[in-house]
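Before the break, one more example. Copy the sequence into your notebook; we will annotate it together after we see the structure.
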Amino acid sequence: MTAPNHSPAPWGYEYSQYRVRREPDGIESELPAFEVFDDDGNKVFDTNEDTPSELQEANACMASSAPRLLRLS
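Here is what the structure looks like once it is written out:
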């Protein structure tokens, strides 16, 4: 059995908010979100927009360190 591989390191993250429009009033609001990318620019995952922005960024920062942590183990 071979060990599973992860996406190419290093991983990074970006703030990637998006807008939603409430109907029927048409009011737009911005939802914070972060996306984690591998070294090839492929999105590994994104954060849960239902959590506070600071927590999302902390989760994205921690997750982007996964390849480095795996290498240390």
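The mean pLDDT is 90. The chain has two helices and five strands. Try to locate both features in your own notes.
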